Amino acid sequence: MKTQKNRYQQTQVLRLRYSAVFFLCVMALIALPYLVCANAPSGLTDSYNLETQELRVTITHPVSDPTTHYIYKVEIKKNGADYNISTYTSQPDPNSFTYSYQVNATTGDVIDVTASCIQGGSKSLQHTITTTNNESKPSTPGFEIIVLIGALLISIALLRRK
After folding, report:
1. Residues 55 and 132 in one domain
2. For 95-98, which contacts have Cβ atoms below 8 Å and span 24 or more sequence positions?
3. Do 65 and 27 share a domain, yes or no?
4. Which of 27, 37, 99, 134 has the greatest number of beta carbons closer than 10 A?
5. Quick one: average pLDDT of 124-131?
């Protein structure tokens, strides 16, 4: 009687593990097309002219049809607070383009710029205003890929566990 109960519990644990692995695989398969279709901007640079108070943001986002797949939003934050959010219904060029914004900033201010694709994905950069007009360097978190890899590793670990 005791062994039959243990066997039943082991069967239940195995079913639970397989269900968890199945769920994680389904979630990964659901997320995969979204990640494949979405493409974050491949390049994002900015420059700030202290004299004219002009921020120039250059975005590289290669697409086949800039009227259906485009950068729809550019967010600008100054010192961590929202400063300007611009939305668009297309992008002016299928490869690379530049937008200009008037931003009242002084030396030492930190400007954050994020460009977002209508189909998902974004790229961000941070720029500290200096007395010289230099360009900032972009940074991209890549969070979606980390989640996908994590789900696959957990699935493998659950399958190998006895």
Report:
1. yes
2. 95/60, 95/61, 95/62, 96/43, 96/58, 96/59, 96/60, 96/61, 97/58, 97/59, 98/56, 98/57, 98/58, 98/59
3. no
4. 99
5. 90
> Dihedrals φ, ψ of 28, to 5°?
-65, -40
Give kind and range of the element (H or E) at residue 132: none
| CA atoms of 91 and 70, how far apart (whole Å) | 5
Per residue in 19-41, pLDDT (tens digit) is: 888 888 787 777 665 544 557 78
Are 83 and 66 in a shared domain? yes
Contact (CB, 8 A) for 73 and 61: no
- Is residue 113 predicted with pLDDT exceeding 90? yes
0.85 surpassed by pTM: no
